[in-house]
Amino acid sequence: MRIDILTIFPEMFQGPFNHSIVNRAIDKKKAQIHLHNIRDYSTDKHKRVDDYPFSGGAGMVMMAEPIVSLIEKLQSERTYDEIIFMTPDGELYNQKTANILSGYQNIIILCGHYKGIDERVRENYITMEISVGDYVLSGGELGAMILADSIIRLIPGVLGDETSALSDSFQDGLLSPPVYTRPADFRGFKVPEVLMSGNEKKIAEWKYEQALNRTKLRRPQLYQNYINEA
Fold it and tell me: Per-residue pLDDT tens for 124-176?
């Protein structure tokens, strides 16, 4: 998989992408991440990428020209499955979308700033708009990091068996059950006996009940969706 990230702050990605799962995926050649500075495609002598909005109002708007120039350059080199814009008013991101995106070959992620981007870019070039939550960040970079990490970890061969994505929360529509490790007795707090019984059927039943109860308590809407689809 190849992910091209369009941003005015490419340096923000160096730390998160140079460590952990994403870095492992890159080293294994399971994923490529290419960072592109939108300012490099500005025709303004000061490399400006924003301007005042028509009709006035507070804030600035990212201009169409540098963004479109960069997108069209990338499109001339390969075909993209999605061109994603990170925006608070986009589709709320979830595991189902992550699963779908992880099967693609080439993705562009555009990081917005200020009051957003010229609407003509959204109407004519963007194919998917994603929000990572009902709140506003200073820019789309943090959202793009979340998106890239959540997609890349799902690519076959990236995770080891001990961290298999198949057992993650949300994969089956429920939160994950509690997990424990050694020692079995920590200061009088004991691991549930069923987990040490060796009875795989009972363990599976216990995990399912725990996941069901935890989801009902902590995420009632997710629980209701699961019940409705069952």
Answer: 999 999 999 999 999 999 999 999 999 999 999 998 754 555 556 567 889 99
Per-residue pLDDT of 21-53, as tens digits, reads 999 999 999 999 999 999 999 999 999 999 999
CA 38 to mean position of chain CA atoms: 21
Q: How far apart are CA 113 and CA 100, in angstroms?
A: 26
Strand (E) or helix (H) holding 189: strand 189-190
Contact 50/114 with Cβ under 8 angstroms? yes
Instruction: Name every residue whose Cβ is closer than 8 Å to that of residue 133 and which is 6 or more positions away in sequence.
Output: 92, 93
User: What are phi and psi for residue 150, nearest 5 degrees?
Assistant: -70, -30
70-117 tens-digit pLDDT: 999 999 999 999 999 999 999 999 999 999 999 999 999 999 998 999
Collapsed DSSP state (helix, strand, coil) of residue 205: helix
**Backbone φ and ψ of 134, nearest 5°:** -85, 65
Q: Which domains does the chain have, with CATH numbers?
A: 2-152 (3.40.1280.10), 169-229 (1.10.1270.20)
Query: pTM of this prediction?
Result: 0.88
Nearest in space to 114 (alpha carbons), one of 87, 142, 83: 87
Q: Is 73 helix (H, G, I), strand (E, B) or coil?
A: helix
Rounded-to-integer distance, Cα 68 and Cα 89, Å: 21
Q: Where are the beta strands (DSSP E) in 1-117?
A: 2-7, 32-37, 50-51, 61-62, 82-92, 106-111
